[in-house]
UniProtKB/TrEMBL annotation:
It holds the Pfam family Glucosamine_iso. NCBIfam families: nagB. It comes from the Bacteria. Residues 17-227 form the Glucosamine/galactosamine-6-phosphate isomerase domain. The gene is nagB. It comes from Paenibacillus plantiphilus. Gene3D superfamilies: 3.40.50.1360. The active site is at 66 (proton acceptor), 135 (for ring-opening step), 137 (proton acceptor), 142 (for ring-opening step). This is Glucosamine-6-phosphate deaminase.
Length: 254
């Protein structure tokens, strides 16, 4: 695992370097994309690199991690809308090459099977971008007594609904279920980039990267993956033990 610590304002630039490196080595990469506030600096930088002609997604494909169940795709808080507004409509990734779970499907279980089949026939994820929830979720794989390998319907944890209620008019408006790719899909990605910013994530980041690997903290399973890059701002890195920070590079990509 490699941990890169950057100033908050430099996180986006680092995200640009990381995706450029991936797409240079494999222009037809299968990218796993995330939503939430965490990836926004990455996406802003990707948009400006594409705008300047320094990056192209033209041969890539993308699969999003998750989507709320029962929220119309056109709803302002659906992850479909988030992706259009924050990335997809601004870059040259083909519309037909982007996949987001369909939270409006009449049969959500069938949609999960379809999503897994599509992902598998594409060859799996080459490069997976992840944020981390305050409770240690990745995608919407919530803490619990067990984890699920494939794409599945999940009951959202109360703390997740509360954290995400900032985007809705009220807590009651936050969906109770979501579709998420499973832990197996995430851990099979050939490379994973986990991003966290802000003091509010410092404790969970430290536990996930240094504590026991356990289903009660899904992000802790990233310790078992062979190729993980963790991108943190100084605040999110502030509770990591000095021994681990000693082995970090001060964002030397920049
Ligand atoms: O980035 P945020 O808004 O803190 O959310 C944490 C994580 O929860 C999710 O929104 C759930 O999928 C992730 O996409 C995100 O990285």
């Amino acid at each position: 695992m490699e941990i890169l610590v950057a100033q908050t304002a430099a996180i986006g630039q680092l995200g640009g370097e990381l995706i450029a490196r991936q797409l240079r080595s494999k222009p037809d990469s299968i990218l796993g994309l995330a939503t939430g506030s965490t990836p926004i600096p990455f996406y802003k930088e990707w948009i400006s690199l594409v705008g300047r002609g320094e990056l192209s997604f033209a041969r890539a494909r993308s699969f999003n991690l998750d989507e709320y169940a029962g929220l119309p795709r056109a709803h302002s808080q659906s992850y479909w809308t988030f992706m259009q507004e924050n990335l997809l409509r601004h870059i040259d990734l083909r519309v037909s090459a982007t996949e987001i779970p369909n939270g409006e499907a009449a049969d959500l279980q069938a949609e999960c099977v379809r999503y897994d089949r599509t992902l598998e026939s594409a060859g799996g994820i080459d490069w997976q971008l992840l944020g981390i929830g305050h409770n240690g979720h990745i995608g919407f794989n919530e803490p619990g007594p067990s984890l699920t390998a494939g794409t599945h319907v999940v009951e959202l944890a109360e703390e997740t609904r509360q954290a995400n209620s900032r985007f809705f008019d009220s807590l009651d408006d936050v969906p109770r279920q979501a579709i998420t790719v499973g832990m197996g899909t995430i851990l099979k990605a050939r490379e994973i980039v986990l991003v966290a910013q802000g003091e509010g994530k410092a404790e969970i980041v430290a536990q996930a990267l240094t504590g026991p690997v356990m289903t009660e903290l899904p992000a802790s399973f990233l310790q078992l993956h062979a190729k993980v890059t963790v991108v943190l701002d100084e605040a999110a890195a502030s509770k990591l033990p000095a021994s681990l920070l000693g082995s970090t590079r001060e964002a030397e990509l920049l």
